Amino acid sequence: MSNTSSPNFIFIKNATVLTVDPLNGTLANSHILIQEDRIVAIGQALPNPSESNVTVIDGQGCIVTPGFVDALSLINNGVTSVLEHCHIIDSPDHADAVVEALQDAGIRGTFYYGFYANPPLPDQLDPRGFSHDSRLSDAARIRDKFFGQNDPAEQLLTFGVAPDEPESMPIEDTITQIKQSRELGARIITMHVAMGPYDLARRQVVQNLANRGILGPDLVFSHGSSFTESELQAIKESGASIVGTPDTELQMGMGFPIVFEASDRGCRTCLDAARTTSSSSSGKRTRFPLSINRKTANIFRMGTLGGAEVMRMEDLIGSITVGKKADLVLIRCDGIENIPVGGPVGSVVFHSSVKDIDTVIIDGEIKKRNGKLTVDWGRLKEEVILRADRIKTEAAKIDLTAARKRWMDIFHVEDISE
Fold first, then answer.
1. How far is the C-alpha of 8 from the C-alpha of 5, rounded, in Å?
2. Which residues belong to the signal peptide in this entry (predicted)?
3. In whole angstroms, what separates CA 25 from the centre of its chain?
4. How many whole angstroms separate alpha carbon 8 and alpha carbon 208?
5. CA 5 to chain centre
6. Is the dihedral of CA 234, 264, 352, 326 positive or negative?
7. Measuring CA to CA, how many Å separate 311 from each of 2, 157, 170, 218, 369?
8. In whole angstroms, what is the distance from residue 297 CA to residue 312 CA?
């Protein structure tokens, strides 16, 4: 936010407001007043602000929701907070570039410094590539350079760590990396575990961590299709969390998504497919959860307040509540898919898509307005095309035989191309 002598205001008027706040529920024909980065008032009888520096947004025919929390998509899709599990850190320059890109975008979330070592290129002299010790040192550098106190109340982006893939190394190494992550000051630690048929050894990583007393509320596990009942109980008791991505888990053949059962058992859960704004076919994505007797409101909650709980930010975001950060999405309901609106939650979950996202606000800053991002897309588009061409040209020079074999071994894929 800009530091001016007088505060900036945003006034959203005459909208249907899905607060996800149990005290307020759904509010018809209501107004929201934002001052700087906070929600300061919600109601039907709010007077129009008299200040000169106020942006007024007419919400007639629109639904306002909390910003969505996601591990994959970003601002254009209505996502205001992201879990950035970054496993492409091949050098310190890569790490700097990722953090700077997230900061430039102005999105809220946690950047997870990935310890995963990508296969070295054929012409690299050091077969280990960017070594683990080098990553530890560089993660500390990144932590000190970008993240200050690492407090989500004071900064949009915070620091976390993603240890190497736990199902590809001994449990002692995973424990060591978790301890190293905590020593680095990681606010959250995330990892992929229990991915069904990809975990042929049935390592039960979570159970082993529980047995060693390593589990804690700072751990977030993705996927988990083959979690046991005792592992789910251990996650619940420790305060750890689960992120489910049903479309990915089904597409990759991991097995039946566990996130719904985990939610029923009282675990903290976030559902990527809960937000319907990922693509024009997003409504189809959300029908899977609902087809197994999940209430629409529960699915919606998992993509908003549930995601905030997983990120340990529920006191700041996840619901439209006075005093919380102003992370909001305004969805237009005047399109052919949404007329008439039978129920606002169902309209968001079943019928809305990225084209219906009119406005996205993060920390009191408008990032998308009238259906367009508030960036110079013409310039950025040309830059993206140029960079993509360069990457394709450089990639064509690389012999990927070794990397291809490695990934086929990891995912137990048989080569039938010959």
1. 10
2. none
3. 24
4. 51
5. 34
6. negative
7. 26, 12, 27, 9, 27
8. 21
Separation CA 407–CA 309 (nearest Å)? 33
Residue 298 burial (10 A CB sphere; 0-12, 13-18, 19+) = middle
Ramachandran angles phi, psi of 325, nearest 5°? -65, 145
Place of tokens 């496993």: 87
Helix (H) or strand (E) holding 359: strand 357-362
What is the bridge-based pairing of β-strands 328-332 and 54-58?
Answer: unpaired
Q: What global pTM score does this model have?
A: 0.91
Distance of alpha carbon 239 from alpha carbon 190, whole angstroms:
14
Question: And the tokens for 374?
Answer: 């508030």
Amino acid, single-letter form, for residue 247: D
In the chain, the domains with their CATH numbers are 68-316 (3.20.20.140), 380-410 (no CATH)
Contact 321, 75 (CB under 8 A): no
pLDDT per residue as tens, the chain (418 positions): 444 456 799 999 999 999 999 999 999 999 999 999 999 999 999 988 877 789 999 999 999 999 999 876 789 999 999 999 998 898 999 999 999 999 999 999 999 999 998 776 666 655 455 789 999 999 999 999 999 999 999 999 999 999 998 988 899 999 999 999 999 999 999 999 988 877 767 789 999 999 999 999 999 999 999 999 999 999 999 999 999 988 888 888 888 889 989 999 999 999 875 443 444 443 444 444 444 456 889 899 999 999 999 999 999 999 999 999 999 999 999 988 888 898 999 999 989 999 999 999 999 999 999 999 999 999 999 999 999 999 999 888 887 777 787 777 767 677 776 5
